[in-house]
């Protein structure tokens, strides 16, 4: 696969665009996959994962990560090298402004890709049981706790999870991870206009935040350090050749709080 072959099936990634890719481990179960594109560090990490499900998800997401980034970068997937920035965020070596962030949960992964704008992505599988208010009190800013508490009980867990993904996407975009106090910024979730209410990095208006449901039972968010970023959704399909198939997703229905 070359970058131009696959890239021709996608719209170009312009400054201000964010391409959101999503995929699943399910199709890959039991198939023999070519691990040679992974680095020694990735194979070492994979070997250390104790649970088969976690191994399958790590493998699927990192094979996809390399194949997708190669489309935009132009180098072959195995030639891509990664380094960790201060704070732990993975970056491409010689990435020339190509920014990305990966997240995985359950049996799904999402990957955000942008040019010259810091991005963070997060996906979470909805959990049974509702400890939302208790966990919110522990981690969320006051505005966010009030929003969760004010939500009708049957929607509370979804609302909580969506705010969680937004907060996580934000801290991952900044690259600071949990060094950034979680109550030093606040977000607000509505299906039509999710927003950063208080920012710890730059002005509130410098941020674009977007939420979606990648599949039933999952919630996800992306945060971009840029005003008015344009978000496009794609699915990743592992084909037998194997090649990347980029297909524009029907815009997922927003999640109603
Ligand atoms: C990176 C971090 C911020 C998120 O981790 P997570 O939610 O467990 O996992 P995700 O699947 O969303 O993200 C993991 C991926 O993010 C990337 N990543 C790792 N460190 C990162 C950092 N400091 N900044 C941005 N991205 C990072 C990696 O690509 C990693 O995937 P990989 O290990 O397969 O390469 C993690 O350090 C963490 O500690 N999270 C704490 C969760 C929490 O308390 N959140 C509160 C939200 S209210």
UniProtKB/TrEMBL annotation:
Species annotation: Phaeobacter piscinae
Keyword Repressor (UniProt): no
Keywords, sorted A to Z: Transferase
Similarity comment: family membership: Belongs to the P-Pant transferase superfamily. Gsp/Sfp/HetI/AcpT family.
Name of the protein in question: 4'-phosphopantetheinyl transferase-like protein
Residues covered by the 4'-phosphopantetheinyl transferase domain: 118-223
Source organism superkingdom: Bacteria
